Amino acid sequence: MQDFGENIQQAHNEKLGRHLVAAINIEPGDTLLEERPLLVAPHWECHQLKCAQCLQESYVMCRRCQVFPLCMDCGQHDDFECEFFASGAGKAICKDILVKNYGICGLLKLLLLLDNPETKGDCQGLVETPINLSDYRDGEGMWQEHEELVVRPLMESGLVAVLPAQQLTSDTLHAHCIRIDSNSFEVTARDGDTLKGVFVCGASLPHSCVPNTVVALDEQFNMKLYAAVCLQPGDIIYNSYTNPLMGTSQRQHQLRLSRRLECSCSRCLDPTEMGTHMSSMKCRECEGGFSVCEIEPNGRLGDWRCPDCGALLTAAEVHELQAEVGAALVEARGELQVYESLLTQYGPLLHPNHFMLLDIKQNIASILRAAALMNSMEQPCKKLLARRVELCSDLLPVCRAVVPGISKLYAIGLFEYLLALVELVELQFAESDLNKKEYAHLRTASLVAKEAMDLLRFEPENSAEGYLSDRIAMELERIESDLKKYGR
Ligand SMILES: [Zn+2]
Ligand SMILES: [Zn+2]
Ligand SMILES: [Zn+2]
Ligand SMILES: [Zn+2]
Q1: Ion ligand 3, residues whose Cβ is below 5 A away
Q2: What pLDDT, on a 0 to 100 scale, did the predictor assign at position 477?
Q3: Considering only Cβ atoms within 10 Å of each terminal Cβ, which end of the chain, N or C, has fewer?
Q4: What mean pLDDT comes out for the span 285-306?
Q5: Is the pLDDT of residue 322 over 60?
Q6: How far is the CA of 195 from the centre of ligand 2 (A)?
Q7: CA end-to-end span of the chain, whole Å?
Q8: What is the model's pTM?
Q9: What are phi and psi of 147, to 5 degrees?
């Protein structure tokens, strides 16, 4: 049973079932929940053997059980899972089970945790979650992937027969796969590979596209959930399981696929998406108008209409255009000129903040960044760097609006903007061409660095965000010394 501390408590209602609410007044940054992962596992499609203990790449097998990979740095892995194959019930199972089907690793670990009397209780919150298999059976992709990579190999391995107490059928295995997927956060191993960290409590929070919390994950895969905004007693604790830089129809599509969820959060019910207009189209009839998606009282998305002139743009027309831009984005394959021409082609049809334009702009900014880093363009000229500053700054107001309060998304947006500014100013230094305007860039950079560090101050030191914060601190030091050198 999880101890929630004094900040939050459990509650229950019809719509959400069991959930968590604030127990007292909570300030942004206050910790709400700390949790160790129930298990960390590779993605189902992973074929790269990884150490059972630290999850880094490893081709050596544990000498004792000869089933789980174990790297040179790790002397042992979970005693129960090792013993199970070394001398226990699993002895009869082929030692190659993981070598041949590494994708089963996550589910195998869960089944062993359930078989171990000492850890069985830790899994209860997870395995008690009811799963309606008929929702998934005919769905896109996921069922088939589970069936081929996990369920069938496990059913054929003989494991089911040696775990009789669990009465495993292929349906129970499918349900476990879905539970693992919907209770995991992406975590990063020390070698940079992404993995699934399964968190019984932290990853089962109800979803809102406007979450009031931030999830922090350190290098040991420990999770800390902290408040993004002020919370009052009784406020429901939400997390977000979608990308905030997608438009409403895309977020909803993703939530339906991954979590069988119909979202009706404040952003999903707001045609302007919190004033950002991330899904709005330019009106085809009037000058300066924007068509916004009409949302029915039940939350269903309708057609697009211009509030200024009343002109209608059907949902089908909008979806067709979005599909066209989406396909063009796939085709662009990192070609700078192609992205720039997409911007010219579709800019006049979409709101400047439309999520697809933002996507194109992000692509351009990162190509310019990579090019500047690799110096592949002869002398990254001022014009290109200035273009990157402009693109990065375009993204900021949207990042700020869609994730209120403490926001990693906004912090990372600020960091990209900061780098763009600093690289531009450095070039100007080199050309000793620093006038008043460029000096102002340096001042802006200093403010941006401080704001980004302020947003990252609740992140653990030993996390990607912690290291990012150190990096920004170094930039800030340089900026401050430049300001002194050239400043008044
Ligand atoms: Zn290891
Ligand atoms: Zn072992
Ligand atoms: Zn929503
Ligand atoms: Zn209009």
Answers
A1: 209, 263, 265, 268
A2: 96
A3: C
A4: 92
A5: yes
A6: 21
A7: 60
A8: 0.91
A9: -60, -50
